[in-house]
Request: fold
Amino acid sequence: MEAAQCYWWDLGQRLQGLQEVQRLIKESASRTRDVLKQHFNDLKDTLGKLLDERLVTLFQEVDTIEQETIKPLDDCQKVIEHGVNTGEDLV
Reply:
């Protein structure tokens, strides 16, 4: 009887130990998830800022190219309009 009681007590201790380890694992996993979530949120914020900055730079480059490309056409239009106006004066 005493052996059975010792065995029962030993099993109870082991069960408590297992439950404690399970609790620690769950807490550790929860903390790890929180850290990962924060890390990825920080990465998303940083990446979003970098992408926004890149978009502004690309828009500026497009604006510059647009202005450089339109200027000769504007100059040509002025020459043609001058010719049309001169032709109207002659007619």
In short: DSSP finds one helix and no strands in the chain. The mean pLDDT is 94. The two ends are 130 Å apart (CA to CA).
